[in-house]
Specification:
This protein is of the alpha+beta class. It contains eight helices and 18 strands. It has two domains: about 170 residues, Aminotransferase class 4, branched-chain amino acid transferase, N-terminal domain (D-amino Acid Aminotransferase, Chain A, domain 1, 2-Layer Sandwich), CATH 3.30.470.10; about 160 residues, Alpha-Beta Barrel (D-amino Acid Aminotransferase, Chain A, domain 2), CATH 3.20.10.10. Strands 1, 2, 3, 4, 5, 6, 7, 8 and 18 form a nine-stranded mixed sheet that branches. Strands 9, 10, 11, 12, 13, 14, 15, 16 and 17 form a nine-stranded mixed sheet that branches. β5 and β6 form a beta hairpin. Bound molecules: pyridoxal-5'-phosphate and 2-OXO-4-methylpentanoic acid.
Length: about 350
């Protein structure tokens, strides 16, 4: 698909951009452009059209746009890194394209083909490449998303949809230096149920997690751990990350994909890197009791969270009401897998699985 490109007549000036890149934080600053593709329903089912790159700015949306009422929306999250060869690369974007399609199917939204998805990133980076930070694991966070823009209050899949990509320079998701995070175990709220939308990357899952996230913050915790009370409080995932446990005899354990958790691309990559280095990987149900007992008897030596925004972040403490399950600080396996994964993403470690894709 051909993108019409209209450069922003008033981009952020270079000095201000450099200031932002020196201390980007997470998700508060945005680049000069956005890529857009619209979709309209028609007799043959619907078609994508009006692909363009235009100035970043507020979207004109009818107050009756169905996304505002019924949350028909899906999104993705990925990162672009500047490599020593001057190129800008992203990590496994084909997997994000495929997941966006799966999420779209679950939310009765149209599927965007992989080629247009990749082109939207490339077209955006062609103009906004100066916004990719240099070094130290900093990256340009890419946020593709799709929403029902039709002005209609009936409850049915929208006939007008927009797909967009915005980009935001990003440092450490949890702020400052990498350090183990405290996690709040949510006993009052769950995130997903069988047949629900837990495996889709859709705004509603995050909206539903906010009150639990608020409880976490009130208790000095950075993220929420959601459980599955139907299955002996099996560990599901964090509000925005998957979870791994490391055992003293060299195994990696992560909750299996049961349809209620997000199929993380970082998760899948960690499984591969773990197997590459001879670790046994178990994808299975793991209860909170097993986690607590394992920490107590020394068989579970490390725990970490993983996702695009967080990369790999050690879990220091699990706060379950008055009980605190304390994992060892930043363990060796966590550190070493993080270094390898980040090394591949930033170009410092050989990309033996062909995971990188050059965007600009
Ligand atoms: N689980 C949830 C709920 C998420 O929001 C994310 C972040 O995207 C992940 C897991 C990790 O997914 P990925 O590694 O593809 O970023
Ligand atoms: C990501 O890691 O890309 C996410 O979407 C998670 C969110 C907590 C920022």
């Amino acid at each position: 698909m051909q993108f019409d490109v209209t450069p922003n007549p008033q981009p952020v000036d270079a000095a201000r951009r450099r200031e932002i890149l020196a201390d980007p934080g997470f998700g508060t600053h945005f680049t000069d452009h956005t890529a857009v593709v619209d979709w309209s329903w028609d007799e043959s089912g619907g078609h994508w059209h009006s692909a363009r790159v235009e100035a970043y700015g507020p979207i004109q949306l009818d107050p009756a746009a169905s996304v505002l009422h019924y949350a028909q929306e899906v999104f993705e999250g990925m990162k672009a890194y500047r490599h020593a060869d001057g190129g800008i690369y992203t990590f496994r974007p084909q997997a994000n394209a495929a997941r966006l399609q799966r999420s779209a199917r679950r939310l009765a939204l149209p599927e965007l083909d992989e080629a247009t998805f990749l082109a939207s990133l490339e077209q955006l980076l062609a103009l906004d490449h100066a916004w990719v930070p240099d070094g130290d694991g900093a990256a340009l966070y890419l946020r593709p998303f799709m929403y029902a823009s039709e002005a209609f209050l009936g409850v049915r899949p929208a006939h007008e949809v927009s797909y967009r990509v915005i980009a935001s320079p990003a440092g450490n998701y949890f702020g400052g230096e990498l350090k183990p995070v405290r996690i709040w175990v949510s006993r009052d709220y769950t995130r997903a149920a069988p047949g629900g939308t837990g495996a889709a990357k859709t705004g509603g899952n995050y909206a539903g997690s906010l009150v639990a996230q608020q409880q976490a913050a009130d208790n000095g915790c950075a993220q929420v751990l959601f459980l599955d009370p139907l299955h002996d409080n099996a560990v599901e995932e964090l509000g925005g990350m998957n979870v791994f446990l490391v055992t003293s005899d060299g195994r990696l354990i992560t909750p299996a994909l049961t349809g209620t958790i997000l199929e993380g691309i970082t998760r899948e990559s960690v499984i591969q890197l773990g197997r590459d280095r001879g670790l046994e990987v178990e994808e299975r149900r793991i209860t909170l009791d097993e986690w607590a007992r394992g920490v107590e008897d020394g068989t579970i030596t490390e725990a970490f969270a993983c996702g695009t925004a967080a990369v790999i972040t050690p879990i220091g403490e699990l706060v379950d009401g008055d009980t605190v399950i304390a994992s060892a600080g930043t363990g060796e396996v966590t550190t070493s897998i993080r270094e390898e994964l980040l090394g591949i993403q930033t170009g410092a470690v050989q990309d033996r699985h062909g995971w990188l894709h050059r965007l600009a």
